[in-house]
Amino acid sequence: MPAYLDTLTARFPGAFATSTFRDNPRVVLSAEKAYATVFPLLKCLKTECGFDMLAELAGIDYLNYPGATDRYGVVYGLVNTTTAERVFVKAHANDPDPELPSVYDLWKAADWMEREVYDMFGVSFAGHPDPRRILMPHEFTAFPLRKDYPLRGYGERHNFRPVTRAEG
Fold this sequence. Notes:
- By secondary structure, this protein is α/β, with parallel strands linked by helices.
- The protein has helices at 3-11, 31-47, 110-121; strands at residues 17-21, 24-29, 53-61, 72-80, 85-93, 99-101, 124-126.
- A hairpin with a 2-residue loop joins β1 (17-21) and β2 (24-29).
């Protein structure tokens, strides 16, 4: 077991489960513990364990997934640029208002990544400095990567004015 997992286990006893995927350790936080634990855990990984780079941040919808107990997952891919170690932290959230704390204060790279996860999945990030939509029009009210979003959409295309070359 890597030394940073020992540090996390000592600092956050019983707060997470661990597993390994393709030789990369994963730390998994349930929805009950994720909101309170994900920011301090990621801060510990950055400040005490040397994971200085947020390489990826992605959303997952587990609707109708076999064995899933939580609806949404947000995966943080961290890299220690000194040792080339990687760790993935998955924090879960549930309906009706899925929310996790923003990690923008730890990594400025989280700015657009958190906005994309909100735009596509509807998971909001408390404390984010600019929570505007980034991929979809501002008037859009749905989240197209949710598994309960209809494949043909809700018919919302007629509600948006076309963008002309002069505007775009």
